[in-house]
Amino acid sequence: xxxxxxxxxxxxxxxxxxxxxxxxxxxxxxxxxxxxxxxxxxxxxxxxxxxxxxxxxxxxxxxxxxxxxxxxxxxxxxxxxxxxxxxxxxxxxxxxxxxxxxxxxxxxxxxxxxxxxxxxxxxxxxxxxxxxxxxxxxxxxxxxxxxxxxxxxxxxxxxxxxxxxxxxxxxxxxxxxxxxxxxxxxxxxxxxxxxxxxxxxxxxxxxxxxxxxxxxxxxxxxxxxxxxxxxxxxxxxxxxxxxxxxxxxxxxxxxxxxxxxxxxxxxxxxxxxxxxxxxxxxxxxxxxxxxxxxxxxxxxxxxxxxxxxxxxxxxxxxxxxx
Amino acid sequence: xxxxxxxxxxxxxxxxxxxxxxxxxxxxxxxxxxxxxxxxxxxxxxxxxxxxxxxxxxxxxxxxxxxxxxxxxxxxxxxxxxxxxxxxxxxxxxxxxxxxxxxxxxxxxxxxxxxxxxxxxxxxxxxxxxxxxxxxxxxxxxxxxxxxxxxxxxxxxxxxxxxxxxxxxxxxxxxxxxxxxxxxxxxxxxxxxxxxxxxxxxxxxxxxxxxxxxxxxxxxxxxxxxxxxxxxxxxxxxxxxxxxxxxxxxxxxxxxxxxxxxxxxxxxxxxxxxxxxxxxxxxxxxxxxxxxxxxxxxxxxxxxxxxxxxxxxxxxxxxxxx
Lengths: 322, 322
Known about the structure:
The structure is a homodimer. Chain A has helices at 19-31, 44-61, 69-73, 99-112, 128-132, 166-178, 193-211, 217-226, 237-244, 249-256, 268-275, 292-321, and strands spanning 12-15, 35-38, 76-79, 90-93, 118-121, 141-146, 155-160, 182-186. Chain A is of the alpha/beta class. Chain A has two domains: 7-191, NAD(P)-binding Rossmann-like Domain (Rossmann fold, 3-Layer(aba) Sandwich); 195-321, N-(1-d-carboxylethyl)-l-norvaline Dehydrogenase, domain 2 (Orthogonal Bundle), CATH 1.10.1040.10. In chain A, strands 3-2-1-4-5-6-7-8 form an eight-stranded mixed β-sheet, sandwiched between helices. Chain A is globular and about 55 Å long. The mean pLDDT of chain A is 88. At the A-B interface, β8, α7, α8, α9 and α10 of A face β8, α7, α8, α9 and α10 of B. Chains A, B: InterPro entries: 3-OHacyl-CoA_DH, 3-OHacyl-CoA_DH_CS, 3-OHacyl-CoA_DH_NAD-bd, 3HC_DH_C, 6-PGluconate_DH-like_C_sf, 6PGD_dom2, NAD(P)-bd_dom_sf.
């Protein structure tokens, strides 16, 4: 019989310490792992230290820590040197969405680790089967797709490439439950993954409706927030069909599907945004107008919201499981 | 200068007292209107009395009542007789999605009311411009699209038909704010409305992914609930783009749009569901398996969730407006 996993003895690594990588390092650490965090880009290390400290504080404020903050802090090792990864059983890559950059990173990870160390990518842009071929011993490679903030959200997609070994994929799936995730397992290596694919279908349709003058950005957001936002934390889209009653859907599909946008074209509006260097709320320069103070207030409010929606989702998962 | 509206003096009517109509009657009543509720279908009246009493109790339990419950209860008149509508300034139709049935109802409403009484439909299936032509004095007709439970959700779409008079549409828009709604105004008469259209784009894509073996119903729901469900109450989809940062979207659109489903075909799965008389959670016979007890527990949990998410959305709207 296999020994049950002792998470505190399983070293994990993270390479790439931008916002997502820092957030994943905190998630792995507060789940109980010793964490080796590598900054592969010059000068990333100092920023990462600050970011990780802030995120750990946020996790503490949100009541997610079982132990004291220093207990976790000292279990995260930060370095620019890949050799700290040598005892890791799992290394998560979080660098930019560029094949060449990722290829170099995988080689450096492989140089320092054992042949059965699992290497995973957070990519949502490049197929796992393509990245896999850049990895020595490709059977140990898979996609682990996190949602921000990684230490709070339940979401996780685990994606196998064509060559991923079942044993490794199953081990990660089991581990993910110990991280407090509700992982979904993708047997196939699809680009974009489930939620992203569905959101892109939404984007295609909404840009179409806006470009044809049917609605506006503001009205869309209002409608979505107060309509879909009033049930989506409680149920998925098929559970929603069950709740609405299924009888009218066939007829509606028949009527509406032929009206939906089938375009492959990137919307003009998006071209204009990119040309206008619209970058989003972090730069206080987005589709909406924000002063720097407003942008900060917005980010703070969302951090607080995250905590509350996490708790709400958790309570209802318990009620539904009773 | 126009007198400010005194809502307690504006009589409103509801015709059709299924779940949605009953819920709208409660919404109009607790907003302050005297409400005349007509049951056009034989035997609907007794059920409607029970349903409205239950919903009023739910609203009371949720802390939505300014006055005592009996105060509101006695301001709702229930009848099978359309003549109770004669002093109504607005009559909302909530009967089945059938043109002939709606046409008969509009005629009966028009027979009892003044020519400037606004008549509205909750339809999300038939274009407002088509229904409008069945109404004597079509300029006073428009779509008012509510979300369940009507007395709790902020969502509301007000849709003009080709012949709808601006004065009537503006009056309803103003009134909707007194109902505690965040209405969106649709200048054009599109089928399906914004949120529905976007959800149908989601349905088309997800049935495609499931039929091609890429994912399952259960995994989709899990992914959507824990991913989209973790932000959608806080922000709309364009606010989300701002929050994510906009830089990668153009490239991703270019890559993913050509992969999205363009089908007009109703999915086979849906045909099978309809053939199998799968009807949803209310009949304890849905896409998922529910015992009657589980179905009840599920409905109760959702009613409780509704109250909490309403409060959460409200708190964050205040924070964002600060």
